Amino acid sequence: MALQGVLRPGFVQIRILDMEESLVHYRDRLGLDFVGKSEDGRVYLKAYDEFDRHSIILRETDEAGMDVMGFKVSDDSLLDDYARRLSDLGAEVSAVEAGEQPGVGRRVRFLSPTGHQFDLYADMELSDNGPMTENPDLWREEPHGMGALRFDHCLLYGVDIDGTAKLFTEALDFSISEYAAAPDDTKIAVFLTCSNKAHDIALVRHTEDAKFHHCSFLLDNWNDVGHAADILTRYDMSVDIGPTRHGITRGQTIYFFDPSGNRNEVFAGGYHYYPDNPTRTWTADQAGKAIFYYERALNDRFMGVVT
Amino acid sequence: MPVFDDRGEGVLRAMERAGRAEIPVGCRNGGCGACKVLVLNGKYRLGKISRLHITKFEEQEGYALACRLYPETDIEVRPVGSLLHRAPG
Description:
The complex is a heterodimer.
Chain A: E1 6-16, H1 19-29, E2 33-37, E3 43-46, E4 56-60, E5 65-73, H2 79-88, E6 92-96, E7 107-111, E8 117-121, E9 150-158, H3 161-171, E10 175-181, E11 187-193, E12 201-205, E13 211-218, H4 222-234, E14 239-245, E15 252-257, E16 263-268, E17 280-283, H5 287-291, H6 300-304
Chain B: H1 11-17, E1 36-41, E2 44-46, H2 56-61, E3 63-65, E4 69-71, E5 76-79
Antiparallel strand pairs in B: 1-3, 1-5, 2-4
């Protein structure tokens, strides 16, 4: 098999202000399945097309934002090598014991220059409610809510995005699929992939570190993005922008906020990336089209509002 | 000019429905701090908010997020938040 090493974003742990409201949002509106609640109060959810036990973890506290984003690695034997490579590049690396999240093996944790925590892990129990594998139907039960297929990626904000991007490219073998740069060549947004996807994580330069812009969920097609928009209006949910399309990655998208102000995206489409592809670039004077291909203008809320 | 929160939906959404743009509209859900205001007078209740943006001390001083600000009498507010740069403190 060709795809080895870091496989994909596997989970994100999000801080929320109210568990009941958040469950209505992530379970009933986005359409995730409830997996369970651990003794410390964290709630675990998964999308219907994911095999692993969980992908979204909600932790109730008095601040919004992201605790940690986890990437699944193809083999446990690679974890120590990644830890060494991260450490050699100056990252603060620590260990998270198996079982800190139910059903998840040991994790290598690192702190990025932009102040974000990331975990690498190789083992997570398979869900007993994952996609069928023998003569598989499309789904066990028809998707509900927006019908999110999977947790797909995060966009994170911080100061030294070059430093964080360097960890992902040099220690974890990610590629930069696309970036936008200021006239002096300073990168203002970097899109990184470890797979065939146009991005698995994105970074935007910002005045504050450790900020969470959004976590994103994949939908099947443009009609489903429209259906998501219908749900947002029906339930009077807080919309940021969309439905629209990104120039960068070409994804068809809509952005909205969870009940604690954390931004979510649901999207469809986008190109396929291969590691031999040249990097696509955008100049600052075309930033509007890069971010919102139809509007061709940036929006202050999308650019500035983070948790 | 007064804005009526006649649906109990909070100051920010009432302002939005009235087409008033004096207070920046961010996440609308207590998380981002864009709609931070100082309440100058009146009685109100503050819903759940991210403490990154309003500390308990600030809350006592009359700071609030307009999206989670539920007036119990007429109130007067001064916007102090921003979409692009979080207000200090």
